[in-house]
Amino acid sequence: MTASEILDPLLTAQTWREGGREVAIATVVETWGSAPRPSGSHLVIDGDGNFEGSVSGGCVEGAVITEALDVITSGVPKMLEFGVADEAAWRVGLSCGGKIRVYVERLA
Amino acid sequence: MELETLAKLNMARQARKAAVVATDLSGGVVRLILEGEPVPGPLGEEVAKAFRSGKAAMAEVDGRSFFLNVHLPPPRIVVIGAVHISQALARLAPVAGYDLTIIDPRTAFATEERFEGVELIADWPEDVLRERPLDAYTALAAVTHDPKIDDFALSEALRVGCFYVGALGSRKTHAKRVERLKGLGRSDEEIGRIAAPIGLDIAAASPAEIALATLAQIVQAFRRRDLVTDG
């Protein structure tokens, strides 16, 4: 495996799905302020909650994984929003003060 | 996204082809667009913009929200010369996420023992680069000091627009090199892109330090290149 392939979430997602696992892909689609991961970053999650990649600096991954398990069950994509302003709603926020939107879809 | 689409995307990425994934956020439909594939209408304009900038972006087209994710080939380093500096660079590059290949026709230098676990090709750059062409997502570092080995690769790197072209050698050595590259048909502007002496000026003295300075300069060239295309 080459350096650029190690920890590549999209290759992991493909391998997992081909191996028969249920998989969701979470993607940062918008960022405001100082977001830790740029737009286009991926976190991939399997049906057991195993994950690879990141959408933040570890601040909101837990919440995304929970939502991803829902998406895997329903098959309906979800748009999640995280940020300081939503701390009460999500009980998770970005300590850096940024705001991000994360799109979660099932890998069919 | 369908598994088939993801598999095609991963295949394109592994073949070092640029791709855009367009997700219709209202309907959830995902479309894979490979570089050079025509996309008509306003969506096509947004896709072209995404390829140019290399940045993921939201786009409003015909009242629908699209997310356009851009997958550019990962930057890699091709080193001409299996010398002491290359031994250090081969260890440092993977840490920064760069794949690295070393080319040197001199079999005394290009030995498995000196470069364990490194992709090493003991052949002339002319032959190797015909099979495995350089591209805009490749950094070329020429470190042999030998015009017979370095010159063709440097000229080729400038011609195809490698994002970084560096050459080891003193200012005097470089002045002679400039003349030879002109002879190979390279313009003053192209030749002006060569980083020589190689590496950021951190007063590097040992081969390992020169390798570190070179890697830092490669990272800088790649990241600054993003800023340039941004405007």
Concise synopsis of the structure shown:
Chain A has 108 residues and is an alpha+beta fold.
CATH domain class name of the largest domain in chain B = Alpha Beta
Q: What is the count of DSSP helices of chain A, taking H or I runs of 4+ residues?
A: 3
Provide the helix percentage of chain B: 40-55%
Can you tell me the CATH topology of the largest domain in chain B?
A: Rossmann fold
| CATH architecture title of the largest domain in chain B | 3-Layer(aba) Sandwich
* Approximate strand percentage of chain A: 25-35%
- Ends apart, CA distance between termini of chain A: 26 Å
Secondary-structure-based class of chain B equals alpha/beta
SSE order of chain B, as H and E? HEEHEEEHEEHEHEHHH
Structure notes:
- The complex is a heterodimer of chains A (about 110) and B (about 230).
- Chain A has about 110 residues and is an alpha+beta fold.
- Chain A has one domain.
- Chain A is about 25% helix and about 30% strand.
- The longest helix of chain A has 14 residues.
- Chain A is globular, with a radius of gyration of 14 Å.
- Chain B has about 230 residues and is α/β, with parallel strands linked by helices.
- Helix content of chain B is about 45%, strand content about 20%.
- In chain B, the strands form 2 sheets. A 5-stranded parallel β-sheet of chain B has the order 7-6-5-8-9, sandwiched between helices.
- In chain B, helix 3 packs across helix 8.
- Chain B is elongated and about 60 Å long.
- The C terminus of chain B is likely disordered.
- The chains are: A alpha+beta (about 110), B alpha/beta (about 230).
- The interface between A and B is medium-sized, with 24 and 27 residues.
